[in-house]
Amino acid sequence: MSKPTPLSDALSSYLKQSGFSKRLQQAGIVEAWAELVGPQIAAVTEPESVTPDGVLRVRVATAAWANELSLMTPRILARLNAGRTGRVKEIRWMPGPLDRRRP
Predict the structure, then answer these.
(1) CB within 8 A of 71, min separation 6: which ones?
(2) Residue 44: its pLDDT value, please?
(3) Is residue 35 part of a domain?
(4) Rounded Cα–Cα distance for residues 89 and 68 (Å)
(5) Of 13, 28, 42, 46, whose CB has the highest number of CB atoms within 10 Å?
(6) What percentage of the chain has pLDDT greater than the value 90?
(7) Cα–Cα distance between 7 and 20 in angstroms, integer?
(8) What mean pLDDT comes out for the span 23-35?
């Protein structure tokens, strides 16, 4: 008779097999945005979502900032993806008003 599998191991295995683990890590990027990009970029941006294929949509306060950030994309992607299996492959910088009412 084998020992029961700990719930944490069973859940971890399920998340990995189902693909949810990758999606949770991608969603974690949105949650940890300010810590990952720093206060200056966080002040003028607001991450909106990550698609299953790894496209991160980020609202940017001005077109000038969107242009500046597009030049910094390779560095930002490296920072976002460090140590994650749920990776962001592309960032879409979208100028427009930020919605700071969101929690």
Answers:
(1) none
(2) 96
(3) yes
(4) 19
(5) 46
(6) 48
(7) 16
(8) 78
How far apart (Å, rounded) are the C-alpha atoms in residues 64 and 95? 9
How many Å apart are CA 101 and CA 80, to the nearest integer?
24
Can you give the CATH number for the domain in which 24 is found? 3.30.300
Tokens encoding 56? 């991160």
Q: Is the pLDDT of residue 15 over 60?
A: no
Q: Is residue 11 part of a domain?
A: yes
Determine phi and psi for 94, rounding to 5 degrees. -120, 110
**pLDDT-derived band at 11, boundaries 50, 70, 90:** low
The answer to whether 47 touches 30, Cβ cutoff 8 Å, is yes
Tokens of 35: 């810590």
